[in-house]
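Posting this for the archive.
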Amino acid sequence: MTVLHLLKGLKRYEWRYHNILLLLASAAVAYYLFQADFVQRFIDGLGGLGYVGTFFVGAMFAYGFSTPVAIALLLLLGHSLNPLLIAAIGASGAMISDYLIFRFVRDKLSRDIMFLIKDLGLRLDGHRIRRWKPFIPLIAGFIIASPLPDELASALLGGIHFNPRKFLLYSYVFNFIGILLISSVGMAF
């Protein structure tokens, strides 16, 4: 059997829930990474990088596991830097992180979830989903601006196949608002 035949055989094989398992595995890896000393030293060094560090702190603001650390760093940065610039730069980093989550959910994870629902013999009531669809962007915007994990907002918007260009703008604006509020509180102290 040649390598080409082997690759064709692998292409036909589809593991139905690999994206769900990948999501769970990445959460476990993230948890253990945040326990490591070198990651703690990296995080401690971000505050001293000024506006360059703000971009990375903004990227951390989007992920549920690193949100508390990002909030603490945004408060510290707000004490010494301009909150408007912190929000503008940090929202860029958060937007990129949110977009990565959005694409994964929209393109991969939602398909796996539908397979799982079907395999479990469950059915979705399309009427109820359509009734809530107009409110999902508003709910997702609140989640993005708040310290809640942006993965949830990206999953909601990815699940309704929200337009990717609109998502980028949406993510930036709501992350800007959330980061501005947090860094402004840091300025007050």
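DSSP finds ten helices and no strands in the chain. The longest helix spans residues 83-119.
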